[in-house]
Amino acid sequence: MSTKSYREAIKDAIAQEMRLDDTVVVIGEDQRGGHGGHQPEVEALGGVLGVTKGLWTEFGSERVIDTPITESAIIGMAAGAAATGLRPVAELMFMDFFGVAFDGIYNQAAKFRYMFGGKAKAPLVVRGMVGAGFSAAGQHSQSPYHIFASVPGLKVVCPSTPYDAKGLLIASIRDDDPVMFCENKILYDMKGEVPDEPYTIPLGVANYTREGEDVTIIALGSLVHQANAAADRLAKDGITCDVIDPRTISPLDETAILESVAATGRVVIVDESAARCGFAHDVAALIASKGFDYLRAPIELVLPPHTPVPFSPALEKLWLPDAAKIEAAARKLMGA
Amino acid sequence: MADLKTLEMPKYGLSMTEGTVANWLVEPGQSFDKGQEVCEVETSKITNVFEAPFAATLYAVIAPKGTVLPVGAPMAVVGEAGATPAEVEAFVAALNGAKEPEPAVAAPAKAEAKAAPKAAPAPAPKAAATVAALAKSIDKPVAGATVVPAALKGETPEGVNASSRALRLAQKLGINLALVTGSGAEGRISVEDIEVAVRAAGGSVAAPAPAERAKVESHADDSAVPATPVARRLAQKLGVNLNDCRATGTQGRVCRDDVLLAAQKLGKLEDAPASVAAAVPQPAEDPVVTPMSGMRRAIGARLVQSKLEAPHFRLTTEIDMSRLNALRKEINADVPGVKISVNDLLIKAVAAALIKVPDVNVCYDAEQQAIVRYPDADISVAVALNGGLITPIVKAANRKSVTDISKEVVALVTKAKAGTLQPEEFQGGSFSISNLGMFGITQFDAIINPPQGAILAVGAAIERAVPVKGQVEIRPILTATLSCDHRVIDGALGAQFLKELKRFAEAPNLMLV
């Protein structure tokens, strides 16, 4: 066990899997380049935020494949490699760029196993950054995981801590289905205890980060920490909360959510993916259809407005759900 | 040391959660063979005989006759021959200890607890006391309590795969999750799995408390909500948001009553002006709910069957009662000790008409698809009772004198009200009369009493001006309506019967010839 950042935990997971399994390869932009291209003696950049820094040095160009800025080629290559027996970990840099590469993901990789009657599979992981709060403006701040989760055949993971990131990424690499691994960019420098040896966290198992009896707060990624902060503040006033981090959106741990709602009867769902048709709405529909009788109050959604993410830091702060908004929603449910 | 076991409350159907020990067929101390009937168990649906799953000796009855037990709870202590009373007592004590109820478990009803020691037979008096205590502790728990069977008790070891809520519940109830099978991904144990395990081991799980209705108020702008001006003003006065009101007014508008109801629900009327509060419709007292008695259910079933299956048609006639009334007066004046009623005479007239038109004196035999015609007029007379009605039968009324009929009717009505009618006194009959004349009902129609072919509904005799030989005279006129089952009686036939009835009633001397 040692203290590692979210970024280091992810690199740790990839490196350990590459050592264990020769079929694991990394594909992406700037994996090797950045600092002078073909100069082996120069440390490679390791992606735009340096997550995979060091992998090229250890595994070489055969297994750490540098690509031009061409998302459709990255995904096409990864999907094909996966179908022919490799376990690629492709990096899309920002998940916002899925638009130029989505055919390979949603119309090819996600369909292989089903349409070829189980004879083909696509064990690939697509890593990418999501999340606002980095002043990266409208095209580099989105969280399109709700779009991925709507595609059958794709698994969607959103880790919120270094520990979860490592365990979930190893589970994702070992999974035989395509996994969209959504890393929240403002968590990269978050530190936490991470075991040194490889371990997995099963996909589809939620984590309760706080336990309480009055309100259930459901959040993903960086918002889990906002929800925890809200829960801690509420606890001082005697309002205790279950904070649920589903960790994977698809598959979704419905049991963990419904069990908590059954006990509290009050739900706040926090999300930054979308103000319409997003992750929060999906969970709200789950609760309304399978847990209606448990509810003591309407489901509260804490969501950004239905606009692109603003560039202005002040506006972006206003745009993002935060602990204060979550706390207010919970208090509203308690009638306080 | 003899091997002792328990006999447990069986589960006869998927829906069975508890059963009543209806009767013990084996005495304590007696041996029984495998398959022998040991006791009777009553469920909400059936009474079943519990057959011994193995041969043994019955040592102690834990659940005396009448005890309600959850499925799987021990009913008796049994074992191979040769167990000493001390051994039995020790076994029961062990069971008792294991069953030590949770603090959350409600105490058994006091009456049952008192009854138990008396009713529990056991080989040794000391054991009997312990058995009674056990019977007490496993007596029917108060609905809603959670009872965890001893088999599941314990501490959950590290590393059991369970959901967060399941872990917390297990800790609260003192359940060892290692004994529970998980149904989730990778064998994860959910709250539901715990509930299933508790029920399977014979315990019970409290129903979740129903969520209280939260008083949720809207704060959105309600200026665009369609509302009547009065409603809008009142809403402003009471601080009610129009979004919280139902719109029952015209053109889909919120009206005054909607605002008042919403204000009441949101508890905003307390500090409202008295004049406003008084206008709120207060819910009346709760309606009284009485389960249907057996008689009501029988009436319901039979009459629904009649209405659904028998194609009813109705014929109405008016009968001039002057001569029948006169005859009644004469008989009552001339015969000492006799007080016949108009009804008695009508029964006699109906009997005479039935003999004259025998095809109305019939029943419909659905099974044989046949019409059964009776030689005698067995007339069922509808008698109103508290909470129901019954139709005792005046048998062979055609062959009885009016005084006999009168005496018989009095006797039958008395028995009916006392509830002592014998089945043969109210089952059968070939024709029914229902008389509501005493209540001033002038005319009504009755539902045929199946499988009979017809029923006569008799109204009150009302004095009316009727033309008699060109003169207007005041005569008591009774309206009688015959309901016929068209499967066995046609219109002309029914009309013919009514014509004969009218003839006999208007000229009662015809009944004598």
From TrEMBL, chain A:
Keywords, comma-separated and alphabetical: Oxidoreductase
CDD domains named in the record: TPP_PYR_E1-PDHc-beta_like
InterPro entries tied to this protein: THDP-binding (IPR029061), Transketo_C/PFOR_II (IPR009014), Transketolase-like_Pyr-bd (IPR005475), Transketolase_C (IPR033248)
UniProt cross-references to Gene3D superfamilies, sorted A to Z: 3.40.50.920, 3.40.50.970
Ranges of residues in domain Transketolase-like pyrimidine-binding: 4-190
UniProt keyword Oxidoreductase present: yes
Molecular functions per Gene Ontology: oxidoreductase activity
SUPFAM superfamilies linked: Thiamin diphosphate-binding fold (THDP-binding), TK C-terminal domain-like
Protein known as: Alpha-ketoacid dehydrogenase subunit beta
The species this protein was found in: Paenirhodobacter populi
From TrEMBL, chain B:
UniProt GO molecular function: acyltransferase activity
InterPro entries, per the entry: 2-oxoacid_DH_actylTfrase, Biotin_lipoyl, CAT-like_dom_sf, E2/Pdx1, E3-bd_dom_sf, PSBD, Single_hybrid_motif
All residue ranges annotated as the Peripheral subunit-binding (PSBD) domain in the record: 161-198, 226-263
Transmembrane segments: none
Cofactor: (R)-lipoate
Family matches, as SUPFAM superfamilies: CoA-dependent acyltransferases, Peripheral subunit-binding domain of 2-oxo acid dehydrogenase complex, Single hybrid motif
GO CC annotation terms, alphabetical: pyruvate dehydrogenase complex
Domain Lipoyl-binding per the UniProt entry, residue ranges: 4-79
Pfam families to which the protein is assigned, alphabetical: 2-oxoacid_dh, Biotin_lipoyl, E3_binding
Acyltransferase recorded as keyword: yes
CDD domains hit by this protein: lipoyl_domain (cd06849)
Keywords carried by this UniProt record: Acyltransferase, Lipoyl, Transferase
Top-level taxon: Bacteria
One GO term (biological process): pyruvate decarboxylation to acetyl-CoA
EC number, as in UniProt: 2.3.1.-
Family: Belongs to the 2-oxoacid dehydrogenase family.
Name this protein carries in UniProt: Dihydrolipoamide acetyltransferase component of pyruvate dehydrogenase complex
Organism whose genome encodes this protein: Paenirhodobacter populi
Origin organism lineage: Bacteria, Pseudomonadati, Pseudomonadota, Alphaproteobacteria, Rhodobacterales
